[in-house]
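pipeline: protein-struct stage 2 | run 1193 | Tripartite ATP-independent transporter DctP family solute receptor
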Amino acid sequence: MAKVSSAPLGQFSESLQVLSLPFIFRDIEHQHAVLRGPIGEELMTDLEAEGFKGLSFFDAGFRSVTNAVRPIRKPEDLEGLQIRVMGSQPLIETINAFGATAVPMGQGEVYVALQQGVIDGWENNEPTVITFNMQEVAEYYSYTRHVSIPDILIMRNDLFADLDEETKEAIMDAAEATAIYQSSIWGDYVGQAKKELKEEGMIFNEVDNIEDFQEVVTPIYEKYGQQIPNGEELIESIVNY
């Protein structure tokens, strides 16, 4: 078993790429409703066809831009900045649409890359910033909240299929209970991480108008609506859920 981001899993199961689209979730309550309902079940079924058994979705926070140059208040503030992203095509296109240059890079390289000026910033949630001490090399945290890409608890589908029904049921029940518990402690973790980051000098700011950021990423929805099987219908069902 492993807990992994749904973003790289989208390279195997295309429908999961919708979870990396910018601003597709209004808030965490909307995300939970989508992923714990029939849409989430559909996405897990698609994942099974690629050899993975999805057990449950886990919170991974809303990602915002952190950088060492200036506060980000409008898309224009990102122009000319090199921003690290993980290997997710929708995420790469989102950062590029904002006006920055997305730089795919492994997490282990980010601190040194910021320290040496190879990149200007990255994007992630507050707990991840404090975990990797990124406040030491990028002091501005700007609440773009552009994506909320969930993690997924997975295991090998063939291994799960070989289990007896009682064990399968026990695993799925435990995964569901764990997801609810993880969500509750994640919220506490975000608050504690922000408090610690402020104490260490990180500067937080809200953007001037989130609609300015939403407007520039509209073409991404159009592209993935065409690219993903039943993409337009799936995107619409999530947005209007």
